[in-house]
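Anyone else keep sequences and structure tokens together like this?

Example one:
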Amino acid sequence: MVKLADLENRKLKNISSRYLKLVIYGIKDILRNPSNLGKNKVQLVNDYINTNETCNRFKHQSRVGENLPETENNENILLRVSIANKQDPVTNAKIEFHNLLIEENFSESSGFEGIKILKFHNCFFKGSFEIRRTNLEHLEFKYCNFEEDFILSDINKMKNLDISDCVFHKFKVFRPGEQMETVIQNSEFKEGLFEDFPQEQRQRGTPPKRRSQKINLRGRLQSSHLVFRNLFLEELNIYEFSNQSDLTFESIYFEADKAVVEIKNSNLGNCHFINLDFNKLSKLEITGTNVSDILCSAVQWKYDIESGNDRLKRDVHRQLKYAMEKQGDRVEALKFQAKEL
């Protein structure tokens, strides 16, 4: 097994401040330029990298979805990073991983003491990825592929989750952070669930703890099954977004007269809205967007929809009337027809 870097229980030397930025690149980059590890702030233990021969065997993917070549002899690249120093602990570390094939399971046991920002760019995970009860505040994924389970759970201190151009086979976020802002752009979710509290808790009538969320959708959603369920939303922003998949918002709770939903320059496709009360929103804006194919069940509408001007507003009401007619909801169709005139 090839160990790229094992910093667990290592002392940090020559740290001039309590903010540390550590960037770990692929084996090829490290062997050719060890200074990438942070100019002696963290020392790489040479005996964890075999020889330059390893460099020649290592290959990384360049595009999401591209088959990643196996390393020779099925050798694994194991990442275990822990920033911990009892005498002088780091409290605001930033760590980035670039261009890596990670075959081992990546979990909270990898150690995230003192780390606030964690980023993965162009990484391929063959094992599962799981983080629970972490102090991380910012988590970012760009051009990453996850072949097994991806789980974030009880991430109470998380403030930002950014996902761009990634592929997930089994994705689950459960009990996200208070007022966490999530940005999803141009990604695929074979099985995706974003949930605050379990369905059983809602059915029992147990009042869940409110953790207001901000959800931002951008780009394309295709070949996906993604569900947002049992969430308290402060903001839902859908900008320049095209839904070509199975996208569902179910049992979403809006704080009365405070929550905002903005949908601009998008195509919602056959997005499902189930058990929502848009009437509680302080603002519902739909501008330059195709909503004629949406599917609704147990939805309370806010009829004062903002759309930029009267012509655009009439067009939105016309589309919603058409959507309601296709579902056989004559009552709602007539209400939107009255607004259209």
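And example two:
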Amino acid sequence: MKKALIFLGVCAFLVIFVSQAAIQYFAHQALHTIQQQHQSDLDLSVDWVSADFNGMLTLHGFAITPYILKRTYAAKKVHIYFDDYLDLIARLPSLSGGEDWSGVMRIRTESGQTELRGIGLDDWLAQEIHPVIKDVFSVHACRKAQELEVEEYYGALGIDRLAMDFDIAINLDAQRGNLSVGVDLAERGRIDMYAVMPSSALPQTPDRLRWEALAFDSIQFSYVENGYFRRLSNFCTESTEWSRQGFALIAAQQWRETLASQGLVMNDRLAAMYANYMALGGKISVAMQAENRLQLGDWSHYLDRELVGPLGVQVRVNDAQIEQVALRLDSQRLMPPAPAQQPAAKDTEKSEANVASNVAVKAYVPVSLAEFVAVPGVRIRVETLDGRRVEGVLENETKKHIVVSQMLKGGKLSFPIAREDILELAQWQ
């Protein structure tokens, strides 16, 4: 009997040892595969990996740098949840091949933070989906915030780092999936979203995510500002005669006008709700239960019509429901026609004729950054050290950045470019 128990104990130890070794191997293989497949897009590193017997894989010392954002996100721990320990062992081989993430039930970060510099999440979403997203979440009626660099702005609010922890959970069956996303921003508040969507809309791997393929049966969104608006209004009203209520009213007016210029037209009730929330703070929540499934890639039938009714939208501020809000998508402003292309010269004889007749032919002329006179609206072309070429209109500038905007079919797109990244600057003249 004693020998049998010893034998079973040795076998159990070997099974645990081998399974843990296999988890370590396949986890590092998965990380290596992700790094290799996306080496031109991001840098990824992990100090070490552990797993418990409840099916939780933990990445210790996690850091990722998406090159497009030019900032690093680091977390003390990233917990990846599977159904149980056996499911973790069974799923890791396909995960290591970069083939299937469907076995991942939840991802949660611990002590995560990102740098102040770089491109923000709102800028990235504006590039990926539509430029109006940046205007929805921008700070309005605060000239001080617009004039400062990101580091200076957050420093003035007493924020020296951008804390950011994620909690993402997915529950799938054959027909439907429930997606829960929580983002804890510490001093800047907390965002929570819960969505019910068809299982087919969720990709097997994150790199297959396509915004236009996402579809929703219902969405619930909430934001708790954790006193952030109070600090923001104190900062923006310093050295002015505005009260917090006055600042909120002016911010709401500018928010409304800015969104209207981009194609989101709201009524007085919705603008008043924004001003009320800016003044009081607390929690705002938006719920949507559409008459028909909302497909992000096919929303043209929502253009030029009131949205709140068909989408079943309900808005609450501090648990009080806001009635009679209205929002409309203006197709002419939301999707302006593409700018007309300048006709190309048919042949060199025309150019020679222009020169001969002393007709000035406009072109891009290189200028040094030191000599460049930054006038908003001037047409420029920027070549960066990493080989990008951005051509458009100068929107604004700061001590460290210039912002170039382009009018595309989907609207205006803004590109902040660090001065230190500029290889050559040319002005149309």
